[in-house]
Amino acid sequence: MIGSIPAGNLLLSCGILFSGSLPTKSIRLLKLVNIMAMSYDTFLRHQRHYMQPAILQVWQSHRELYVQHVVESGKAVCLGGDGRADTPGHSAKYGSYNMMDLEEGIVVDVQLVQSNEVKSSYHMEKEGLRRSVDYFNEAGVAIGELVTDRHVQIIKWVRENMPETNHYFDVWHVAKGLKKKLTALASEKECNELRPWIRSISNHIYWVAASTPAQDGELRWQKWLSVMNHIQNVHEGHGALFPRCAHGELVGRDRQKQWLTAGTKVCSKLEELVSSRQMKKDVPKLSSGHQTSSLEAYHSVVNQFAPKMYGFSYNGIMCRFILAALHYNENGQRAQATTRDGKACYRIDFPKHKKGEHTVRKVHVDCTYGYVKTLISIVEQLASSRTREVLPNVPPALCHEYLHPPKDEAVAQMKSRFQKI
After folding, report:
1. Which residues 6+ apart lie within 8 Å of 393 measured at CB?
2. Using CA atoms, how far apart are residues 243 and 249, in angstroms rounded to an integer?
3. Mean pLDDT of the chain
4. In terms of Cα–Cα distance, which of 109, 93, 181, 190 is closest to 146?
5. How many C-beta atoms surround the C-beta of residue 320 within 10 A?
6. Cα separation of 191 and 387, whole Å?
7. What is the pLDDT confidence band of residue 190, given thresholds at 50, 70 and 90?
8. Residue 3 region, left (φ>0) first, then alpha (ψ -120 to 50), else beta?
């Protein structure tokens, strides 16, 4: 017994939640193989009074240690921010905004917003950013750089409320949107010649960001526009700051794609896209150093703890986000695995988005779960003390403003309605 609770039941509840499993499926699995298990209501009671308070306590401790370290160092941090909705589209109930220290590679803040706290679900991402920035400002943490996607509300809010912070765009998000437009253009009539160039144009925007400091906006723009001359076999006269291409003579494998012809439909359409007003705004603000790819990796971990096809309570999904953050912070920087002979291990994957092309990935060592041991220790302390922690207040349910008729009345009305058919 742990306090007045059977130890097996409490530890089973911890194992289910801390591993990111779903309680209904886990309990059903045990019953199907004739293993005695607690009820679902018992799990919810353990979760509410012991496990969720332990998760919040550990997360608060992690954030305080990070803030203390940053404040003592006296440096301005470089943060990456990105939002995640619990369902696709513009009808999400929850939206989380996650902040990562891009130099340390750890998640440092998670904010959860319910859709009825703002005008609509579309505004949850901006509200999550505002709350996170307020938290760091109150803690005395200076944000020197912020790397995000191109969400228009966030761009405006950062411009108006964070004048001392350099705001940059993640290159992957810009390249992803550009690639979609290029693919659509290549599908039009008389534009199929563009298809072999899509990957090269997409790679070019990464090179522009990586090879040019963010302060040299005009040089970046001239480098970006040079791609139009390059694909027409013109490699000089791009501009005063970037007069010629940086590559050498193109021979052999470097010269396999067919050059486009000036004045054709595909060239005219491509030029409109490359020199569009949107690209004029985005290219000078591309991040030349840190990117938010680590945040995308964290979102993959979140999908293991809080799948989008299942619904959770406010505290339930918040704690699962925190568990994902604790897991990522402990395992995000794992070393590469090696064989007995000391050779680095790799594997070959075929991602769907590459459409048949392969990708070589590093194989990392197995994950560790030290954070789980810490959580279980705190759960046992709470259960032994026989005190039930009170969770923070949560926003009202989405249906709290609706009329709630007595169940007997609703059932009688439903039966009478079907009897008339």
Report:
1. none
2. 16
3. 88
4. 109
5. 21
6. 70
7. confident
8. left
pLDDT given for residue 420 in this prediction: 57
Q: How far from 360 is each of 202, 272, 350, CA to CA, in Å? A: 20, 35, 9
Please state at what angle helix 314-331 crosses helix 52-73, rounded to 10 degrees. 50
Q: If you write DSSP's letter for every residue of 114-183 in order, what string do you get?
A: EGGGSSSGGGHHHHHHHHHHHHHHHHT--EEEEEE---HHHHHHHHHH-TTSEEEE-HHHHHHHHHHHHH
**pLDDT recorded at residue 325:** 95
Most confident of 291-295, 322-326, 359-363: 322-326
Instruction: Round to whole Å and give the CA distance between 38 and 114.
Output: 31
User: Alpha helices, DSSP H only, in 19-111?
Assistant: 23-32, 40-46, 52-73
Long-range contacts of 208-213 (CB under 8 A, 24+ apart): 208/283, 208/286, 209/171, 209/286, 209/287, 209/288, 210/288, 211/246, 212/288, 213/288
Range of weakest confidence among 17-26, 193-202, 219-228, 351-360: 351-360
Taking only the tens place, the pLDDT of each residue in 109-119 is: 999 999 888 88
- DSSP for 2-33 reads BTTB-HHHHHHHHHHHHTT--HHHHHHHHHHT
Angle between helix 7-18 and 314-331 (nearest 10): 70
Band of pLDDT at residue 77, cut at 50, 70 and 90: very high
Instruction: At 84, give phi and psi (nearest 5°).
Output: -145, 125
- pLDDT(310) > 90: no
Q: Give the pLDDT score at 254.
A: 58
CA atoms within 13 A on the CB side of 4: 4
Is residue 384 pLDDT above 80, yes or no? yes
Over pLDDT 70: what percentage of the chain?
97
Three-state DSSP at 235 gives coil
What secondary structure does DSSP assign to 170-198, as a single string? Answer: -HHHHHHHHHHHHHHHHTSTT-GGGGGGH
- What's the count of helices (H) and strands (E) in the chain, helices before strands? 15, 7
